[in-house]
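With this grant's support, we have settled on a layout for protein records. A representative record follows, to show the layout.
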Amino acid sequence: MNYFKLLCFGWASIGVISRVFMYIMGEQWRDWEMDKAYKAQKPWYINVIGLLGYAIVIFSWYNVLTLDIQYSWIISLLVTLTTVKISILLFNYDGFRKFAITTLKDKSKMMQLNVSVIILSAILIGMGLFLY
């Protein structure tokens, strides 16, 4: 399995599994996310995850340039878009928490987010199956 296929399936798995847990946990998900994952004081692991995210983006583009895999630039471009969230987490953590709290409390925004993640996950699965 090539890197880009693995990236598609891995990213889609995270999207689907997180939505399943959100459904199972219900209101407890919001508490877990804001009290444990995104505590008021920025946890140390946010920096580690952020650096890992940047490394994945760099490694993806390195593979685009060094491997001959058609359309690899598409998934690399999508992965590059995640640097927006990574950068906000690293450099404007309080702003991210405010956004997360607002989103988690608004059922309409949560529905839009969940539908978007499921659609993206389906696209990623399709890309993993048929593109790479």
Notes: The helical segments are 3-25, 27-37, 44-66, 72-81, 83-91, 93-105, 107-130. The CA atoms of residues 102 and 109 lie 9 Å apart. The chain has seven helices and no strands.
